[in-house]
């Protein structure tokens, strides 16, 4: 009798451990670790727009419904079509300046505007995460990651398609924290990809 109970408990614990391990290793979501440095451009953006860099309300991960997918496509297409790509040096005479674009902008400006627009449709800010990465040529880049119950999806000004993060050939470095829009967390991207001189 005792052996039977112990066996059932052991099987139950093993099932929980296996379930947890599978969820933790699920490639649909970016593997993240602890806090890391905030990009200087985002820090300066937060000084100008402090309400956009506050702790987020605890919310459930959004369900990837047809409606949300259509909103993501619509926002991605609209921003990519309307905003003309230009560097911060060309626009402002400085190497880096994060801002909401009106007619032109660079990668993080596209991401900020997409974040703003999707938040206004009701997507929680905790699911709309500016993400910094390296392109295959080694150049830095920023995109908007939308966290859903079916994985992390990337809205990118260099690609008209919305892809799951692990379907891209980028090396992901860090992104905004789900808990606090003013904090950043590191991404452990250990996929077997070749990016410039980084790998």
TrEMBL record:
Leader sequence residues: 1-24
Protein known as: Transglutaminase
Domain of life: Bacteria
Keyword terms of this UniProt record: Signal
One Pfam family from the record: Peptidase_C93
Species this protein is from: Jiella pacifica
